Amino acid sequence: MTANNTSNISFTVNGEKFNNVNVPSRQHLADYLRSQGFTGTHLGCEQGACGACTIEMDGKAVRSCLVLASQANGSDLKTVEGFDDQMMEQVKQSFLKHNAFQCGFCSPGMLMTTKEILLSKKKLTRDEIRSEISGNYCRCTGYQSIVDAIEECINEIN
Amino acid sequence: MDDIKVNQNPKLGSIDRPNSYIGRSIPRQNAKKHLDGGGQFVDDLVLPRMVHVAFLRSPFAHAEIKSIDVKSAKQSDGVIDVFTAKEIDEVCKPWIGVLGHLGEMRSPEQSPLAKNIARWQGEPVAVVVANSRAQAEDALELIEVDWLEKDAQVDMETALDPNAVIIHPELGNNLFWTRTVNQGDVDKAFKEADAVVETTLDFARHTGVTLESRGIVADWNKAENKMTIYHNGQAPHMMQHIIAKHLDLNEGLVRIISRDVGGSFGIKVHVYPDEMAVTAISKKLGRPVKFIADRLESFTTDIHARCHKISGKLGVDKNGKILAMEIDDLSGIGPFSMYPRTSAIETNQVLNLSGAPYVIPNYKAVGTVVFQNKTPMCQYRAVGHPIAVAITEALIDKAAYKIEMDLDKIRKINFIPDNSYPNKSPSGVPLEDLSHQASMDKLLEIMDIKEIETKKKDDYEKGILSGYGVISMCEVTNPSPLFYGVGGAHISSQDGASIRLEGSGAIHLSSSITEQGQGTEAIMKQIAADQLGVKLESVRVTLGDTDATPYGGGTWASRGAGIGGEAVLKAARKLKDNILNIAAAIMQTDKDSLDIEDNNVIRKNGGEGISLQKLAETVYYRGHEIPKGTNPELLATASFLIEGIPFVFTNSAMGCQVSIDQDTGIIKINKFWAVEDCGTQINPKLVEEQIRGGVIQGIGGALFEECVYDDQGNMQNATMADYLVPMAYEMPDIIVDHVTTNSGRSIIGAKGAGEAGTGGAPAVIMNAINNALKQVGAEVISQPITPEKVLKALGKI
Amino acid sequence: MKAADFSYHEATNIQDAINIKAKDEEAVILAGGQSLLPALNMRLSSPSCLIDISKISGLDDIKIDGDYLFIGALATHSHVMKNELVLKRMPCLIDILKMVAHPAIRNKGTHGGSIAYGDPAAELPALAVATNAEIIVSGQNGDRSIHAKDFYLGLFETAINQDEIVIGIKYPLLKQEQAILFEEVCRRHGDYAMAGLIANVNKIGNKVNDLSLVYFATGDKPDSADKTAKLYLENGYDYSNLKNSLNSEIDFAGDLNSSSEMKLHLATILIKKVLNKLEA
Fold it and tell me: Same CATH topology for B42-150+210-301 and B304-481+644-793?
């Protein structure tokens, strides 16, 4: 077996610059981020079905298991560790209040999905919230508390 | 602070006092880390010189391993070594998953890696150790195995046939365990009954699908002869014992650390061969070894659950009084009984729990558990409950329809009366402190069945089939030593708590209970602060570390609050007693005139007190100022176990309303109600969320989840896209309410609340669907109730 | 579950991508990667090289091109859903895309990727066939246009040549009397359907004048049901007749969530469901 292929790329994570780093070509972005200590990005399935690894890439929510690290060349990435603005702090307080998570494994992805909902400025109904988060698996809560939290955020933030 | 007040337990003191935290829905501040990306899960851990493994797993359900050639794999980039059963067995002794107290169980020895024969698709056969998981997977492709595929015994229903494939020839047949319960004389009673109804229900295999997969890092330190295991399990002390025993280590030098765990639901309380192999590899290599199951491995190697076919018969008189119930349950558990809890318990619970809310004078139950070439089956959330509750409640609905009695009425006249406890279940299991009557009354109050009936008629006129169901159930919680310990398993039924006042005035609590997201850490903190009289934020908690917590069982079988919580309560009271004794000595007063409020020892009659910080400083740094002979211990430890009965039962009543699209067979759950009596609720919001999450898992089993196998024993849907877990869009909001009957077994009075939802939802959903289908003479009897099964029942396909 | 090793090439322009693909039979085009990455991660596919075309500029245009609405191959589903031209000229596409997976997948998944991948359970290939779309591919010999109905040959098999790359899709602009109707039946929201139907309807008022039916998630490629459409035009909705016709016309292939029998039933029911939308 030959040595692994690598790609040389530059990007930012939560504003921190990563310049000319070598990443294994085959490595997906979630694995790369985790290898750099951004372990808030979780892996649940590595096929895009569970939503746990959802992060922000150039302002949009993406599954970081379905993006190669190489593809992040030139991108601005934001992981849960970087969700520290006023809006996201309010979202977190709402999640805490409603107990919108139990084990916390789905939370980073769920927060990213919530962030995208809030940034869209849409007034969603409970059913529409359920539709928007239907790509994020949570085994613990049964979703109702998550819908409660997001509904509250929509009402208070938007 | 959210001020939800629940029926207060008088043994806990008034809720209207400072630092009264028990019974309040306080958000889990300790869990905020998860929202900041700061959880510490096993896969987040990186240790120096850590290596990764990937397992070669049997692609066949049943095959002989004629030879394995690992030469090329060993040459692959980044590979450190490749092991097969021979090398792992040198370090790790095999195990047998049997218990001694439930009659004869027969299961063969199981080793970490399959030797000679692989018996399920996914069984580990060889393991590559490499610098990265990707490199380990590269090398897997280079291992050459000469397989001889054998016929597989896939179907449990033919497992005992004369021409069945015998999975373990030394056992002679595929029978693992059987049990019969016989109370009264069912045959005579059925003859006397005015109406007898029968049904047979099928429950597919499903599995836990914890979002965080199983994971372990084993770190053998040769210099200290110490094995440190980072493990996302539920029972650290059990794992400590087992790893020491099978790797021949000094048990005291095995340390299990379970930090954050991404959901468990019973899946992570068992001993898995791949995890044992990882500990053995660390011992061999003397360096840290990490294994994180990928999702394919989760589906084919995490324990599966259910897989039952049960027939039932119920006889009632013309007034609806139940005279007799008989069930016959068959379950398939894969090729091995899991270790150390065994794979008999689900069936045992079916036998124990069927009919449990009702007076049934004549009861007969037969359970048969067989081997098959599928993934091993074992205890998952609500062990056996979905089967027991579904068969009982389906039969009761059938009887009600037959004698034309209302669905709630037939239940009410058969409940074991709330004022008759202690009592016994039809199977003979002791029951205490239950409230089926009050809970059903509460359910009917919040459901409004009249309105639902009206809507059902209106819907029918419009061509929509809608229906509803109501059920009652018992939930096994807070097990005593009579559950596992009596059978020879080293699984502690006792839990401990240790609590101390530190020099800074802070309170530190450690408990043998573990956290997997339920909120155990939060409720332990609430109990400690409440009982001590300190602010919540002054208590910090350590869980999940065999070197740092008291010995105990861990979190499973809904035992955290009832057993672990009581230990915390007792320890906190002891510490408070110590503190007040010291304070009385310092303050030259009578201890009974003192109390603790908001981190201060106060004089009940007013006057100057002393802060806990000051008191601690005095004790620790200026001990000479304390009167001689005063006990200076600012540390207290207590343990608790349930004595005399096998379990503390919780009870629950549930209702739901569904509608069915007759064209597509798609079922919509419009409303779901749950009334739970779990005694004292330490944090009502967390209790409600346990119930909701549990109900959704029950809906998963009822409508979506199934491990689909082909005839050769290959799992067909071992991906998250193909195995249908409940997602947000299809799930209903769930209305939760309570009745409170405190457990008399403890001061705290808490019973468990983790499993009723999962145990009851499949029954009430099936009953509601059949209530709807009955209008057109159709019925479904097999879970998951898929659109296709509904359309078949409707005669559409 | 880690991908096998491959080299990664970020294509700077389409010719660059075509040249690599022409040379290396095992090279694979990476656009949005939302179907490719799962296959790589699970080692169901181990290409020698990934040619990332996602950074090539100008391939995500959405514009009117004569009598067609042109959607560039790299337009993501989210981008298409928010596009004003699409909203005005082909609003059905927005409704259809709402059913494609989930928001984060739609942020990355591309129109051209879905068309080129040709998943028989996917909505867009069926839409392309139902609307008589043209699929524009670019190769060593320049560009060519392939009729959607000639594009899909079998299970994940398309008329695209080794050196070719899909660069865009041209949907004929809808005429006033024309409607594209869509319905699918899924176990869960966002899942692949058990069966789905796209109907291209020519109507006068609410009366159906002409009709074509194209199914997805029924067989090995988008399944046109011309005879059944004709039967409907002649006799209206008659469940048994239409079901018999569909059974003779389409080779229904069962999957994990629905047997072929189930798919046949749903396919029949879908005609009613879809055409009910005309009245709505």
Answer: no
**Would residue A1 count as lying in a domain?**
no
Burial B102-131 (b: 16+ CB within 10 A, else e): beebbbbebbbbbbebbbbbbbbbbbbbbe
Q: Which of A49, A79, A107 sits opposite B34 (nearest CB)?
A: A107
For the stretch B581-625, pLDDT in tens is 999 999 999 999 999 999 999 999 999 999 999 999 999 999 999
Total domains in chain A come to: 2
End position of a domain, from candidates C172, C194, C209? C172
pLDDT tens digits, residue range C232-260? 999 999 999 999 999 999 999 999 999 99
Task: Kindly list the residues from chain C whose CB atom is less than 8 angstroms away from the CB atom of residue B296.
Answer: 1, 42
Q: Of B365, B384, B479, B482, nearest to B426 (Cα)? A: B365
Between B and C, how many CB-CB pairs are < 8 A? 63
Residue A32 in contact with partner chain B when CB distance is under 8 A = no
Residues 6+ apart with CB under 8 A from B441: none
Closest chain C residue to A43 measured between Cα atoms? C1
- The verdict on a CB contact (< 8 Å) between A103 and B44 is no
Percent of chain B's residues with pLDDT above 90 = 97
Query: Which CATH number fits the domain that encloses residue C89?
Result: 3.30.465.10
Mean pLDDT of the region B431-456: 97
* pLDDT higher than 90, residue B7: no
ipTM greater than 0.90, yes or no? Answer: yes
Model pLDDT for residues B560-570, shown as the tens digit of each residue:
999 999 999 99
Chains interfacing with B (3 or more CB pairs < 8 Å)? A, C
Q: Which site among A14, A43, A143 would you substitute to test the B interface, given the most B Cβ atoms closer than 10 Å to its Cβ?
A: A143
Collect all residues of chain A within an 8 Å Cβ-Cβ radius of residue C103.
61, 113, 116, 132, 135
Last residue within a domain, chosen from A80, A104, A133: A80
Of C2, C258, C272, the CB nearest to B788: C258
Residue of A nearest to C7 (CA): A5
Of A97, A104, A127, the CB nearest to B260: A104
**Whether this model's pTM surpasses 0.90:** yes
Architecture field, domain B304-481+644-793: 2-Layer Sandwich (3.30)
Distance CA B251, CA B265 (A): 27
pLDDT given at position B1: 43
> Which residues, 6 or more positions from A117, have their beta carbon under 8 angstroms from its beta carbon?
A124, A129, A132, A133, A150, A154
CA distance B624 to B200: 76
Q: Taking the alpha carbons of B382, B383, B387, B388 in that order, is the dihedral positive or negative?
A: negative
What local confidence, expressed as pLDDT, does residue B11 receive? 87
Q: How far apart are CA B724 and CA B731, in angstroms?
A: 13
B interface test, pick of C239, C262, C268, C275 with most B CB neighbours within 10 Å:
C262
- Where does the pLDDT of residue B470 fall: very low under 50, low under 70, confident under 90, or very high at 90 and above? very high
Closest CA relative to residue B378, chosen from B438, B473, B437, B302: B302
Which of A80, A99, A118 is at the close of a domain?
Answer: A80
Average pLDDT, chain C: 96
Residue C57 domain-assigned (yes or no): no
Tell me the chain B residues in contact with residue A95 when contact means C-beta distances shorter than 8 Å: 35
CATH superfamily of B42-150+210-301: Aldehyde oxidase/xanthine dehydrogenase, a/b hammerhead (3.90.1170.50)
pLDDT in tens, C109-153: 999 999 999 999 999 999 999 999 999 999 999 999 999 999 999
Contacts of C30 in chain A (CB under 8 A): 68, 71
Domain chopping of chain B, boundaries: 42-150+210-301, 304-481+644-793, 494-640
Which residue in this structure is represented by tokens 């009910």? C276
Q: Specify whether domain B494-640 bears CATH 3.30.365.10.
A: yes
Per-residue pLDDT tens over the stretch A94-138: 999 999 999 999 999 999 999 999 999 999 999 999 999 999 999
Give residue C138's domain range.
Answer: 62-172
Alpha carbon distance B617, C251 (integer Å): 83
